[in-house]
Amino acid sequence: MANPKFKTKQAKIILGSSSMARRKILAEMGYDFTVMSADIDEKSIRTEKPEDLVLALAEAKADAIISRLGITGHKEENAQPTLLITADTVVVYEGMIREKPSSKEEARHFIKGYSGGCAIVVGSIVITNLTTGTKSRGWDRSEVYFHDIPDEVIDRLVDDGVTLNVAGGLMLEHPLTAPFVDTVVGTPDGVMGLSKSLTEKLLEESLES
């Protein structure tokens, strides 16, 4: 059992992600953290179920960062814990898994499909306690329902280029997208890539194991 005197706010936090949305969410939660990004070949990891895929990708990101840090053993039990947060998100549309668009044409195709429809967002979080070597993991799911999105708005979103950097080309918080979101069943932070409630739960678990 980890030393109970440590709370999540006392742990050293590393966010293993280059996502600005994840940085913003973790900062909103009141955490101080450093950032490292994992350079992995995401296309080389394939599974049929989106839940399995996002967990496998988050685990691979954690392993890549641990390798970069050169961690081969673990510290004494009472050392200040260092927690590494990695995550991944995909969009499921009509049963098909969508990751980041490979081109502006694909981004336009993705967004046009959401118009008047629904996108399912599946996200994972893996928290690795670098002090003990244990991992806590979980996933969450949200549904996003859209009003009709005019073609000119889709064109502006695609020309902006930012949709190429997010799963399924879906950026809920973008000022061009937000007016056309009808209902979110789940949490906006989960859709943006880091569920606050799941993050808190896993952070606490990682200090208890």
TrEMBL record:
Gene3D superfamilies: 3.90.950.10. Signal peptide: none annotated. GO terms for molecular function: nucleoside triphosphate diphosphatase activity. Transmembrane segments: none annotated. The keyword ATP-binding does not apply. SUPFAM superfamilies: ITPase-like. Keywords: Hydrolase. Pfam families: Maf. InterPro entries: ITPase-like_fam (IPR029001), Maf-like (IPR003697). It comes from the Eukaryota. The keyword Hydrolase applies. This is Maf-like protein.
